[in-house]
Amino acid sequence: MVQYLDNNNSGFAAWNANRNNTAKKGKLGGFLWWFVIFMAAWYAMGLMFGKKTDTVPANDTTVAVVDVSNVPVQEIASDKITANVQGLRISNVSLKDFQESAKSDETVKLLAGENAYAEIGVVGVGTTAPTADTAWTVNGETYTWRNTDGVVFNRTVAVDDYVIIINDEIKNDSKKDFSFTPYARIQREKDNTSSAGVYTGLVVYANKDIEHDDWRALAKKPRAYTTVNGFMGFADQYWETVVDIDVPDQTIRAQKYGDIYQSDVSARAVNVAAGESVDVQTYMYAGPRDSSALRGAEQHISGIDKTIDYGWFWFLAMPMLWLINAINAIVMNYGVAIIIMTILLRLLMWPLTRKSYTSMAAMQKMQPEMQRIQKLYANDKQRMQMEMMKLYQTHKTSPMSGCLPMLIQIPIFFALYKALLISVQMRNAHFLWISDLAVMDPYFILPILMGLSMWVQQRLQSNVKKSADKNDVAAQTQRAMRWMPIIFTVMFAWMPAGLVLYWTVSNLFGILQMYIIKRKISK
């Protein structure tokens, strides 16, 4: 990333020397300056990963503990999931296509804790309705319960891929009109395994916009939203569980109770006249945060495809993720797919890199004249800058041209970082000794290779001339830059192995590219 700065004859070095020739700085001054910029950019991107919203505090209530041990448990299934239905509650959603880890045959389970479940039902106004501990009568795929007023509740539960469809028919066989308020709530514990840079916590779709609040923010302050139509739920790094009631005028709340997080939604009351019936439909998605799966669920839950956070550089992350998946479909290995994608990106950047190296060569030829100008106008900085600009125009080059490839790689770096972290397919994807490209290299082999490749790049393009002058800022900066391979090795050691693989291959390709371009320039 800093390969184009590590050159005593580069435009950047000359520009920096002109600007700071009389300043007395420490040996690590130049390095610290660039390191602070990099870390500030990293922090800024982290802030942009999540969206901040203004919300209204919810009422502080407590979770009612209901004994449902007497309610029979039924299992529902599709090609994608199995789940337990226990009266109003749905839990233990097993994702058939995903294992807990590369070394485990156990499938991923959502809402699988003792206090984790989704509860979907209605509250009667002037009459009773089924509660969590109500034992329904099961007739085939239909659950039936009748209250003392003659109101009959028929529930059917169907599954479409990752979407559970709950249809409640409320049939009023009495001589009175009643109304019922549909509600749903999801209760679970916090996810402690998510990676930094990926939003996890509360997810709400309100007023055609996605609202986010992470676990920490939700623990500090309850949330409440009002919307015509929407959904609520929780999202982990790779999975999400949301519920959407197909009734307008909704109020969504979320808060923490002890170790339990709860999100609930209630909709406008539904009137059921005497002798008539009304259907209330609710959709629950429990599955991966995968674009194709969410697009399939979008026909039932409007807006759910917007819950994936691609970060600030979404316009790069989305096509890069698509490209990796497309290449993987051919080569059948995500590590190889990342290598091929990296080479394609470097080939795409080849003209710019060649222009950068050519400009650096021109800067080297300008060094005698630049040094003459520096000495001649040492006491007139304004005149020195004017003469330098004339010199750049004459040779048709720029002092910052060597930095262009690095600047372009910054958004690519952040976009790929985000793409790898949110990619469900990358989870448990193996490559050589690495069992999961979405987590760090357990043996630190790739970070070390990356650091070595960065060091080789610096050596290939370095023309260091030792200087005892403490005011030689260019030389000081160059000496400080020698620490960058070590710093980057430590920083990348805990990053996803797929990202480190990309950077290592990019460095190796850059070494080859530098060799080829230098040969052409020398000829």
Structure description:
- The chain has about 525 residues and is of the alpha+beta class.
- The chain folds into two domains: about 10-50 and about 315-520, no CATH class; about 75-310, Beta-galactosidase, Chain A, domain 5, CATH 2.70.98.90.
- Helices cover about 40% and strands about 25% of the residues.
- It has helices spanning about 10-20, 30-50, 215-220, 290-295, 315-330, 335-350, 350-375, 380-395, 405-420, 445-460, 475-480, 485-490, 495-520, and strands at about 75, 80-85, 90-100, 105-110, 115-125, 135-140, 140-145, 150-160, 165-170, 180-190, 200-205, 210-215, 225, 230-235, 240-245, 250-255, 260-265, 270, 275-290.
- The strands form two sheets. Strands 1, 2, 3, 4, 5, 10, 13, 16, 17 and 18 form a ten-stranded antiparallel sheet that branches. A nine-stranded antiparallel sheet has the order 6-7-8-9-19-15-14-11-12.
- Helix 5 (about 315-330) packs across helix 9 and helix 7 (about 350-375) packs across helix 8 (about 380-395).
- The protein is elongated, with a radius of gyration of 30 Å.
- The two termini are about 25 Å apart.
- About 40% of the residues are buried.
- Mean pLDDT is about 80; it is low at about 1-30, about 45-60 and about 465-475.
